[in-house]
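tool=predict chain=A
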Amino acid sequence: MQVSNFTIKHKIISILLFALFMWMAWPAGGLAPLLFIGWLPLLWLEQNVLEQKRAGVKVRLFWWTYLAFILFNLATTWWIYFASGGGMVGAVLANSLLMAGVFNVFHWVHKRLGDFFGYAMLLVGWVAFEHLHMDWDLSWPWLNMGNGFAAWADMVQWYEYTGTLGGTIWILLVNILLFLFISKAEFRTKKNILITSCIIVLPLLISFVIKSNVDDTGKSIEVVAIQPNIDPYNEKFSGMSSDDQVKKIIRLAESKITPKTKLVVAPETAIPDAIWLNDVPVHPSVLPFIDFVKKHQGVHFLSGLTALELYMDPAKKSATARQISNGEAYYDAYNAATDFYDSTNFPMHYKSKLVPGVEKMPFPAFFGFFEEYAIDLGGTAGSLGSKKVPTILPIGDGVITAPVICYESIYGEYVGEYVRQGANLICIMTNDGWWKNTPGHKQHCQYARLRAIETRKNIVRSANTGISCFINSRGELTDITKWWTDDVIRKEVFIHDGQTFYTSHGDYLGRIACLIVGLLMIITILSYFPIGIFKQE
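tool=predict ok
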């Protein structure tokens, strides 16, 4: 399209098409192949804005792209509204702002250095952004591009080598090549057609070969996963007593357990009470679990709870500790998980990947005064305590569980840390009922398939309500429960030792991308000076 013909109407069409394609492609149940053309409208918009600027027309790309990413974020994560309307608005606006910022850095480099360096910056810049977005106070990697294949996991079995960042590279690279093929006649050579075709097809073939060689057999244990289906708004933390909730969980476990059962898994905050660590062995809500494992010898019972740690000495308190009302002591509240197997020892895993604005206050040095306004999803509101390294929970016979709590399951490198410590069975314990019957709980479940592929470990998923299921090491779901239904499932799951390439090396693609972004930024800045040799006139 000629520059003179590219009007506001065309800009609107481009951002609407981008949002539409990405919404249709996104899990759950999305049409993932649309990801390969989803970015074309934005690249079309950027190219025409670039040409308009070179023709002397003043055009502000940032606001058009910001609106495009707002529509994308809103279309795919609108369901956050059910947990918090303000939280949804904040998440959409903030995440879209970051995305638009990255895209406009690409536009800046493209304008200064031309196509090769420009599109290289889009590719590595976006990968670097996703990598950094996984590890800071506003971390929200839900919409990382590589997650888009979660419902089509057969396409990305090679994530065991690259993680989801490999999927991001694949998506952006195909979009860039297709755009160059469409928009530039000189690019339509037989060589480039062959290269583009190979980049699209080869990963699919490789994925098929890898999956056919994944051996999900061998040593196994029988596991029971519980879905108590307790309404998080009207029952979980009010309206239904802790005693009744615990009795329901125990009753469900009893209905499915057999003499072969080795492990029972209950969801996040299955015990709704906040319990002091010293009181765990004698707490009324814990005693039924202790009685259960005594009755069923050899069975381990993993469950979520809220744990409180007391600091009598203020000098020893953590950064997230709260002061006890009318006292000098401090305490930390943890979203935790433990194994009730040994009534004298309760090893604790503390959730460390906390939801910004819900479980932790971002940048507390600057915004700590907002602590009292933290979104309350029941239980303990405000910044929770956390630990830098996740805790594994061995259950005997060489089986070591990774108790992954809710939001932690979005982080591939973090889940890999459990495996690097020796975990060979992943147990995801979650409570997805906050989002009601929306795409939110379905997306969350689908993302777990990617963790199974990355680590080649079987996954047990216990949801308070949402989707409980088993996932094998090929990322295939079985025994899927229905939404808003009391249920309990049982299955023989396989135990696989060892580490995949991705588990061993983590998000190495992100680290490499950050390095390349730094080099491209230096080159672009140098282009403003007489010594710049890459300046694009």
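Confidence is low (pLDDT under 50) at residues 372-380. The chain has two domains: 3-213+508-526, 220-304+341-504.
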